[in-house]
Every structure is written in structure tokens, then in C-alpha cells.
Amino acid sequence: MVYDLLLVAYLVGVVAGLWLVFRKAGVAGWKAVVPVYNVVVWIKVCGKSRWWYLYFLVPAINVFTFLLLVVETAKVFRRYSFWEQTFAVIFPWIYLPLLGGLKTTQYHDPVAEPPARVSEARDWLDAIVFAVVAAVIIRGNIFELYQIPSSSMEKSLLVGDHLLVSKVAYGPRVAMTPLSVPLVHNVVPGLNVKSYWDFLQLPYHRYWGLGSVERYDAVVFNFPAGDTLLSGSLDGKIPYYDAVRMCGRDSVWSGRAVLTFGEEKVPCGEVIVRPVDKRENYIKRCIGLPGEDLQLIDQVVHINSQPIATPRDAQCWYAVRFREGFNPTKLLDKLGVSGEDMQNAANYWSSRGYAVLPLTQQMAAKLEKNSAVLEVKKVPDGQYGVGTLFGYPTMPADGLYGGADSLGWTLDNFGPLHIPAAGEVLQLTPQNLAFYSRVIVAYEGNSLRVENGNIYVNGEPTTTYKVKQNYYWMMGDNRHGSQDSRYWGFVPEDHVVGKAKWVLFSRDKDHRRIRWNRVLKSASAW
Fold first, then answer.
1. In this predicted model, what pLDDT tens digit does every residue of 99-110 receive, in sequence order?
2. DSSP run (H or E) holding 241
């Protein structure tokens, strides 16, 4: 409610300020109230050309134009102070009423009087401040550019894709950590220090958007399990909960814990706690919506007991046997398998005669038709250790959400599990509490304990819990190569950043060339 009042105050302040400014310029004040027409009059008052009308019609550019017009308004009142113009850009709903209301300010026709000249240094300073303020507004409220860093969404979205992520699709989210270095997420590049001051935290609020999260949307969100992590030597990206599971809490908090990644041993380092909007950005596809029951049966997602379609370019792991002595590098490269995936599979085809590769159904079908390929077999549950292929039982999955692996659930056979919705009442039992404990404690700020089989929320015994916000189930299109909700659970509504709309640019790092066929491609699953 407070944020909506602030938005109303912003709009009313700008219009009221223009009313007063117009009157001082000899224009009827009521013209400031008429949408579109008020912009036409404002441009004329500032002595600008008709091109400015077109600038206001271009999304994002119109934000720059609006702020620049505020500065031009200050200039026609001969207000040239750097600090005053900076204040005008940041707080136009306060500045315009003051400019038009003070008796000491006087309008000067820009056509009759030449503009004041300023130094080149001042020109640059004005441009930098103006650009930063405008960019912060656009990045926080309209759109942001995002680069795909990993293969978890392949082959729908590829490593090297640069996406336009819409903030207005679901509504702009108010910055919960407002004191931070502009245009930097959580770490200042090159200095390896945090970019924000978290002593001031604002409550979650989202302004009106064009819609809500829908199934199959490619959604950018703050990593839910990234609330607590470890610095280590991997730039603060070691999940704290993974380290505790592997090394034990006491070892992690003492600073003695060391994680092993292949042949690399990584000390966990210090514990880092991040606010919601400063956690790492992830991108996955929304598969389950609030209030739905989700289950995976042999890789097929079922919602409310009904199967749903799998994204066309989703991939999973296949074991491929090649003819003896055949080098599949050229074949796989032509098929679209990345160099990294081929490198990971190289040991298998050299020592065992088969390769384990992430493939779409279409890619697997093409391989089956190739004379150099003897057999193509889907890898169950993405487990391809020794003795897991060609008739042998699979290894159980490890580290699934809520201890799901202890229930016999796997990456391909997961659930059933209910996705919480705002306002609904969950029935809590000792059996399902592991799946909803983070909802109750980490995401909604309650205390939780279990004593003698009884559940206590905020110190009160209970068997129910009323959910405060919506939750979503996110999965990568690379179904066997994605750290997603199957590992870390639900995505709260307040973690949602925006919707990936289009691929603006894409570069293939293997061949060092632009993928022209992906430019302006939709981020949709279809």
C-alpha cells in the first residue's frame, strides 16, 4: 500500500509541477492534466523540436527523454547548478512543483534567449549522472540484459545467448536493498567486495505488470538456496546447504570444511548471507504453478495427475555406442553438441566404446540413423556411473530437495508434491515437513521446531500453516544437466525478477562466431 501511494505521489507531483510550470510559461495549467497533450505542450515550453514527440513513443528511450526534459525545464528557468539538476533528475515529482511554485523562479523563452554555455567537463559530468539515473530506472523497472552462463536450459537457450528480460511482464519489483552501487548486482567487479549495504531492507512489493507467471515461461529469479553461501575460491557461489550436507554444519562454520570438485580441493571460506534481491540470478522454465500438484513419471511432468507437453528442445542424457575405431567429433559437432559436452564424453568413448551426451529427441533420432552409430540409449535418471547402463540398475539420485532421494524419488520420477499458493492452508505432517520447512522459515520468516512428533510454528503447536505468497516449480530444459527445483525446491514469488522475452544476440564460443539464426529468437519453449 505504501509503495502504491508513493507511485501516486510521483505521478501527481509531476503533473502538479507541470501545471505550475505551464502557468509561469504563459500556458493554461489545465493542459498539464491531459495525457499525451501535456507532453506536446511541455516539449514546446522547453523549445525542443518535433523529433522529441517520437522519442516519447519508443520504450526505454522515453525514460531518457522524460528525464532530459526535466533538466531542460530547469534550464528555461536558468537553473544551471549541477546539484540542482541532479536533484531534478532523481526527484522530478518534488523538483517540478518547487520550480513552478517558488516566487523567485522565472520562465525565460528558450527561442528568444540563447542557452547558457558550460565547460566540457561539466557536459561530461551531466551526461554521466543522467545516464546512470536513467539506466538504473530502466534496469530496475522496464528491462534488463542477461547472458546465459551455463547449459542448464539447452537446447532451448544456449550458452552465449544474450537475453532481454522484461520487468514489466510480471510487474517491476521494488528494490529491497536500495543502498547499493548502481548497475552492479552483488559484488563490485575487480574489488571482490559486496556492492550493497544491507542495514536498510524494504519489504517486498511488486507494481502492476502485464501479466503473471505462466507455465513454460523462461523466468529469471534470485536463487532461493543462495540466501546463505560460502566465499571459498569460487567467487562466493558455493551453496551453503550443499556444503553442510557434504561436510557437516560444525565443520563449515568452523572454517575447516574443504569441498572436492574432481581433482580440485576448495576451502569453503567464510559464511555469507545475502538479501533476496542480491542473490545470484538464475533462469529456468516455469513448469508448476501455485496450488498445483506436480509429479514426474519417467521424465514426463504430470500436473494435477495429467501429463503436460515437454519443451520441444528439451534434452536429457543418452548413451551412444559408436562403431569401433570411429571418431565422432565431426559428427557430433555438426549435430550441435557443444565442445564442452564432447570433452566430458571423451573418456567414455575412448575407454568404454560409448559416449554419454545431452541430446534432444531430434538429435538422438538423427544419430540412430547414422551408420557409424550402433546403439542409442536414454540414460535413466541421468545417472551414468559404472554399471548403470545397458541393462544394469541405476544409481539413486543424491541431494534432492527435502531428502526426496530417501523416498526413492529420482530426477525422472519425482513426487507427487503440492506447490503452495498464497492464502491456502497446508496440512503439515512429519512426512511432508521437510518439503515445506523452507517455506515456513526461510521464505516467510517463522520459527519451526519438532518435538516428540509435534510441530511448533512460532512456538505454537499446529498441524496446519497458512501460506503468505505464491510459489513456483522451475526446471531447466536440460533435464539431466540442470540444478533446479528438484534440488532446491520452490521459487517464492518475491524472488521472481522478470520474464526472458527474446535473444538479442548470440555467440558460439566453440567456433567464435555469431549465431545469426538466433538473433531476435523468442525465449519461449516453442
1. 999 999 999 988
2. helix 240-247
Residue 309 backbone dihedrals phi, psi, to 5 degrees:
-70, 145
Mean pLDDT of the chain: 88
All three cell numbers of 70: 526535466
Tallying the residues shown for the chain, one arrives at 526
For 173-228, how does the pLDDT look when each residue is reduced to its tens digit (9 = 90+)? 999 999 999 988 988 988 878 899 999 999 999 999 999 999 999 999 999 988 88
Domain assignment of residue 275, yes or no: no
Rounded to a whole number of angstroms, the CA Rg of the chain reads 28
Range of the domain at 365: 293-399
Percent above pLDDT 90 for the chain: 56
**In terms of Cα–Cα distance, which of 74, 156, 147 is closest to 362?**
156
Q: Do the beta carbons of residue 213 and residue 421 sit within 8 Å?
A: no
Three-state secondary structure call for residue 411: coil
Angstrom distance (rounded) from CA 341 to CA 478: 12
Number of DSSP helices (H) and strands (E) in the chain, helices first: 14, 28
Q: Would you state the cell numbers that stand for residue 141, as one nine-digit string?
A: 523497472
50, 137, 472 from 40: Cα distances, Å: 9, 23, 44
Query: What cell was used for 314?
Result: 528439451
Instruction: Return the pLDDT at 351.
Output: 64
| Domain closes at, from 399, 421, 438 | 399
The dihedrals phi and psi of 294, each to the nearest 5 degrees, come to -115, 140
Choosing from 60, 84, 112, the residue where a domain stops is 112
Q: Is residue 54 part of a domain?
A: yes
CA dihedral 345, 351, 353, 354 (to 10 degrees): -20
Give the pLDDT of residue 489.
Answer: 95
CA dist., res. 60 & res. 252, Å (int): 45
Interatomic CA distance for residues 341 and 367, integer angstroms: 16
CA angle 291, 293, 296 (to 5 degrees): 145
Axis crossing angle, helix 37-45 with helix 2-24, rounded to the nearest 10: 50
CA separation for the pair 440, 438 (Å, rounded): 5
Quote the CA–CA distance of 225 and 203 in Å, as a whole number: 20
Amino acid at the residue 251: S
Residue with cell 531476435: 520
> 171 with 208: CB under 8 angstroms?
yes
Classify residue 374: in a domain, yes or no: yes
Assessment of whether the complete model's pTM goes beyond 0.85: yes
Which distant-in-sequence residues (6+ apart) come within 8 Å of 339 by Cβ? 333, 510
Residue 372 lies inside a defined structural domain of this protein:
yes
Mean pLDDT of 494-505: 96
When divided into structural domains, the chain yields a total of 2
Q: Which residue has the cell 531430434?
A: 362
d(CA 354, CA 321): 4
